[in-house]
Amino acid sequence: MDSLRGAHGAPILEKVFLPERQKRLVEAVLRGVDDVDVLASVLGVRREDIMRDLEELKAKGLLEVERAEEVLYVLTKEGERCLAEGLPEEKVLGILKARGELPKTDLLALGARSGVSEGEVELGLMQLAAAKAVSFKSGVVSLVDASRAQELVERNRSALRLVAQGSQPDSDVANALRRRGLIEARKRARLRAGPTARLLELWDKGLVLEARVVTELTPELVVSGAWREAVFKPFDLSAEPPRVLLGRKHPYLEFLDWLREILVEMGFEEMKGPHVELELWNFDALFQAQDHPAREIHDTYFVKGGIQGSFHDEELLRRIAAVHESGGGTGSRGWGYKWNPSRALRLILRTQTTAVSARTLYQRGPGEYMCFSLDRVFRPENLDAKHSMEFYQLEGIIVGQHVTFRNLLGFFDEMARRLGLGRVKVKPAYFPFTEPSVEGFIKHEKLGWIEVFPGGMFRPEMLSALGVKDVNVAAWGIGIDRIAMAVLGIDDIRLLFTQDLEFIRRTPRPIPLSLLR
């Protein structure tokens, strides 16, 4: 309660009623206990249990709470091992005490027999030499000051024990142990509570009293008459209510669902395929030569153990072999080598969803249809802001007798318009299974122009091998992760898969507001 003022402005102090735990908290602070962790221990509760009490006492003007960061040292795994098994300098000292001096080669051999590695012997010698406890001459190691060596060992062991117990060693020793990787520094927030002048004055006058403080008048309080001795806590209507954190889908998954809706609205059907794929569908059916660099281990994940899959359509294998070796009657000369069917049956993690398009064309054949696949592909990339070893690819085919390259460019423009990506710049490109081929670029606010729309017209060699005749096929395989970065306004591909709840909550919905109006 706030103090009132008398006729001459002098404060009139009124009684302050506190719940039992807050009263005990105040008493502990007045006894000189200021560390919040210690206060919680005194009260027999967890630290987080008294945080609200501290805030209420602070709001009443009874306590001051200060927050400060401090450095706390903890043992690393190596530090724990050295404390349990002995420091390297301790192990080397034990050998030298027994022998006095000996060639370094003998010291290494004795260490190996007693389970001390060569690295530990070298490190132990380095520590003892720095303390001027050993000397080296003509390959012989001599213990010249056993007491100084023992002092070094005891100092370092004592420091490790202090850290293990939660205490802090001298800064010089701590820095030395930290450089050796035996301890590491961690920052910890420390809270300290202290009495205000108002609390001291109220306490001196006996005006801080314990009472049952209630926030709700219940039937039990009325019937029992306990309300007469209770103090009702006033409501603070200006206080902000707690924020309700509702669940939501990850913004990247929302974006992918939105893409599916767009493509279905445009008349596409979704097609599916396996993540573990035959090279046959991922490469050979796409007229990609068996000696192509992309089919090596630095660009493709292979199933361990050399396991092969199986495929029983001999006619398809014959057609694929023909186009690879001589063009298969398409007017092409093929790749001019002997095609190996056993290589085509190796199992890999698919590197492109074009494998799904090849399967679909093989199953459905010629006709008039449009299909898409939105799923994951895998490549041995180095993870950075623009690349990931696992990412989503949006693959699609437009099949029809009158489909042309202009239909593909029109599709890119329409997708960019629906996604709010702005103008698309295109340039000629090369892919083994399309001709003509193109790459489409969009401009990212932070990353500049990024390539997201590769595509082209499937080559006759590929269509002939799959048994698809008298139709053209426009195909595209979009790097959808990069488009998502542009739509979501982020510049790091790793954020698309983050589990950071704060990022997920604050990221706006991917659908541009201009398209919702």
UniProtKB/TrEMBL annotation:
Residues 259-508 form the Aminoacyl-transfer RNA synthetases class-II family profile domain. It is an enzyme of class 6 (ligase). InterPro entries: aa-tRNA-synth_II (IPR006195), aa-tRNA-synth_II/BPL/LPL (IPR045864), Phe-tRNA-synth_IIc_asu (IPR004529), Phenylalanyl-tRNA_Synthase (IPR002319), WH-like_DNA-bd_sf (IPR036388). GO terms for biological process: phenylalanyl-tRNA aminoacylation. Its main location: cytoplasm. It is found in: Cytoplasm. CDD domains: PheRS_alpha_core (cd00496). One of its GO terms (molecular function) is phenylalanine-tRNA ligase activity. Its EC number is 6.1.1.20. It comes from the Archaea. One of its GO terms (cellular component) is cytoplasm. Keywords: Aminoacyl-tRNA synthetase, ATP-binding, Cytoplasm, Ligase, Magnesium, Metal-binding, Nucleotide-binding, Protein biosynthesis. PANTHER family: PHENYLALANINE--TRNA LIGASE ALPHA SUBUNIT, PHENYLALANYL-TRNA SYNTHETASE. NCBIfam families: pheS (TIGR00468), PRK04172.1 (NF003210). Belongs to the class-II aminoacyl-tRNA synthetase family. Phe-tRNA synthetase alpha subunit type 2 subfamily. This is phenylalanine--tRNA ligase.
